[in-house]
Structures are given as C-alpha cells and as structure tokens.
Design a protein that fits this description.
Elements (H helix, E strand, L loop, with lengths): L4 E3 L2 E4 L4 E6 L10 E6 L6 E6 L5 E3 L7 E6 L4 E6 L8 E9 L2 E4 L3 E6 L1
Parallel strand pairs: 2-11
Antiparallel strand pairs: 1-3, 3-8, 4-5, 4-9, 5-6, 7-8, 9-10, 9-11
Length: about 120
C-alpha cells in the first residue's frame, strides 16, 4: 500500500474554516472511494465523510451542512472543506483511499479548534 500525503491542518478559532488535502502519490489508475476519518483524544476513530469514484458523497451526522468533501480524479487528490468549526471538531484527521489491492491511509494531520 502507498502512504497518502495529507496537508492543511492547523489551529483555528471556533467558527473558522480549514481545508484539508490528501494526495495519492504515483501513477494510480484503480482509485475507488476516498474517505476522511478523525480521532479525538480518548475517542475512537470516526468516519467524517466519504466520496465515491463517481462523486457521490456521504457525511457523518455531526458535520453535515458544515463540511464538504470533493476530489480531483486527475490529481488523485481528495479535499475536505471545513466551515463553522467547533471545539468538538478537534482531532487528528486521516484520509483513506480504496483500491483493488486494499485501503491505504495517510499519516494524519492535526486540527485544533480553540473556543
């Protein structure tokens, strides 16, 4: 499996916005669904959003209406636009990509929302 490359995390005030990016390196031709997960301190990893190869999307209940997932198939990149951020959105965000050979993960990027 390949290591996905994430970027865009950081510290933001409550109500602010951030945009995360995740790129799949190399010449990849069998990329299927892509996902964003997050893990808050002391909690289990949870699914935030996912997008199919055709662009269909789904979101966790806690982020609906605030987060938007998108992808650029030409760049093998998935994005997560996060708005109206809350302190409970704080955590490490991981992207994942599904291929025929299985799922690959990113290293995680920290998002901290200060109240």
């Amino acid at each position: 499996q390949v290591q996905l490359v994430e970027s865009g995390g950081g510290l933001v005030q409550s109500g602010g916005s951030l945009r995360l990016s995740c790129a799949v390196p190399g010449r990849i031709f069998d990329l299927n669904a892509m996902h964003w997960y997050r893990q808050a301190p002391g909690k289990q990893r949870e699914l935030v959003a996912e997008i199919s190869s055709g662009g269909s999307t789904s979101y966790g209940d806690s982020v609906k209406g605030r987060f938007t997932i998108s992808r650029d198939n030409a760049k093998n990149t998935v994005y997560l636009e996060m708005t109206s951020l809350k302190s409970e959105d704080t955590g490490v965000y991981y992207c994942a990509a599904d291929r025929i050979s299985g799922r690959s993960w990113g290293q995680g990027t920290q998002v901290t929302v200060s109240s």
